[in-house]
């Protein structure tokens, strides 16, 4: 029990009350958001490289050069002349060699083999980088609260992607196929963009403290977010159609623009040798390229509408994100036209595919800004 205090006692000597503590939203969070984000950005670069190498593998007709799926032992390439001959013999047994590449030399085979081996090897590297990073963060308790499931999802999707890759390759190893099935290629590429999009979104989420994100969400622009979400879905559909084009080399048919040959709609669009009319949507080069063109025009118009709405945002960072998206949309449209006119040479085909990656990420960035606008002063600076 304390004694009576003198009226002359110094105020500074009095015991001070504890400062009020903030709520749970202000409490420090476990985990290392910055380190996890850096790891995700490394994965982002690797997946982007994987998409580029996959595109080159397709453009060089290298995807069927390895006829077996050996996730572990396949990491080692042939190490002797006898091993190379054995691999070449397996390739000579598939339709692509018999119907398209008969007479190919061992030296020519090695070129396409190394492309496919590099593609698969890069997939293994991505898996190892994910596994090493996840185990390290989990074992040291540095995964931010609520993020374990999301990071596990990335690893699960990566494993699924490997299985789908083999499912795709297997479609070209029998029968009369000299390429992989286009719809399987679209599935494979589509999942790659899903994984890339999730990594990009997670990295954006981790770029700010959780408390700031919760605060920013209160001032999010719901209608603009909805438009950006629609843009995201539309762009994803166009990516799938682009994969169908790549799957049957439809980009090398009708190298004219704006018409397809001398007409707006390609002749014999629904003809498939020995097939049904519905198969033309996957296997007729003219119809597949026509669909990709029309979807591109619609995406371009819709993107301009979204941009006009986005540039009116009172938040300058949000408006700038939609400006960047629109600029890339124009570039990608131009790349698509030039690629078609030149019958999809390797360099332009790769540039167009990487343009799709850039546009995809910028759409996601604009969407994130609409949902979680950056704080700005009243003057907007």
Number of domains: 2
Tally the beta strands.
0
Cα Rg: 27 Å
* Structure classification: mainly alpha
How would you describe the shape?
A: flat
Helical stretch tally: 12
Strand content: under 5%
Largest sheet: none
Question: Could you list the spans in which at least 5 consecutive residues all have pLDDT below 50?
Answer: 5-15, 19-29
> Residue share in helices?
55-70%
Search tags:
mainly alpha; 2 domains; 12 helices
Folded structure, characterized:
With 381 residues, this protein is mainly alpha-helical. It has helices at residues 33-59, 81-92, 95-99, 106-139, 148-170, 182-205, 210-217, 222-247, 280-283, 285-310, 316-341, 346-371. Helix 10 runs antiparallel to helix 11. It is flat. 33% of the residues are buried. The model is unreliable at 5-15 and 19-29 (pLDDT under 50).
Give a brief outline of the structure.
This protein is an all-alpha fold and 381 residues long. The protein has 12 helices and no strands. Helices cover 63% and strands 0% of the residues.
How do the strands and helices of this protein lay out in sequence?
Blueprint: H1 33-59, H2 81-92, H3 95-99, H4 106-139, H5 148-170, H6 182-205, H7 210-217, H8 222-247, H9 280-283, H10 285-310, H11 316-341, H12 346-371
Helix pairs in contact: 1-4, 1-6, 1-12, 4-5, 5-6, 6-8, 6-12, 8-10, 8-12, 10-11, 11-12
């Amino acid at each position: 029990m304390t004694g009576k205090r003198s009226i002359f006692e110094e105020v500074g000597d009095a015991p001070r009350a504890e400062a009020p503590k903030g709520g749970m939203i202000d409490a420090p969070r476990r985990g290392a958001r910055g380190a996890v984000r850096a790891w995700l950005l490394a994965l982002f670069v690797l997946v982007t490289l994987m998409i580029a190498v996959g595109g080159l593998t397709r453009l060089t007709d290298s995807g069927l050069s390895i006829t077996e799926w050996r996730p572990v032992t396949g990491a080692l390439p042939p190490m002797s002349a006898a091993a190379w001959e054995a691999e070449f013999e397996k390739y000579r047994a598939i339709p692509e060699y018999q119907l398209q590449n008969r007479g190919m030399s061992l030296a020519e085979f090695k070129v396409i083999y190394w492309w496919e081996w590099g593609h698969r090897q890069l997939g293994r590297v991505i898996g190892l980088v994910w596994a090493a990073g996840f185990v390290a963060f989990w074992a040291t308790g540095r995964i931010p609260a609520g993020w374990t499931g999301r990071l596990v999802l990335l690893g699960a999707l990566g494993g699924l992607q490997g299985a789908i890759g083999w499912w795709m390759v297997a479609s070209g190893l029998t029968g009369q196929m000299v390429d992989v099935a286009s719809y399987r290629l679209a599935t494979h590429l589509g999942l790659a963009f899903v994984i890339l999009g999730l990594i990009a979104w997670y990295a954006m989420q981790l770029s700010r403290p959780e408390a700031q994100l919760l605060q920013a969400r209160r001032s999010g622009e719901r209608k603009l977010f909805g438009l950006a979400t629609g843009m995201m879905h539309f762009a994803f559909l166009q990516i799938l159609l682009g994969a169908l084009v790549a799957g049957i080399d439809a980009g090398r048919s009708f190298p004219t623009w704006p018409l397809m040959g001398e007409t707006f709609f390609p002749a014999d669009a629904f003809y498939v040798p020995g097939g049904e009319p519905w198969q033309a949507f996957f296997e007729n080069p003219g119809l597949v390229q026509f669909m990709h063109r029309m979807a591109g025009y619609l995406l371009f118009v819709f993107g301009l509408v979204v941009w006009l709405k986005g540039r009116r945002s009172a938040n300058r960072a949000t408006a700038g994100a939609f400006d960047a998206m629109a600029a890339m949309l124009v570039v990608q449209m131009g790349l698509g036209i030039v690629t078609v006119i030149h019958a999809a040479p390797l360099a332009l085909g790769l540039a167009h595919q990487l343009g799709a990656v850039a546009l995809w990420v910028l759409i996601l960035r604009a969407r994130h800004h609409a949902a979680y606008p950056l704080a700005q002063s009243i003057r907007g600076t």
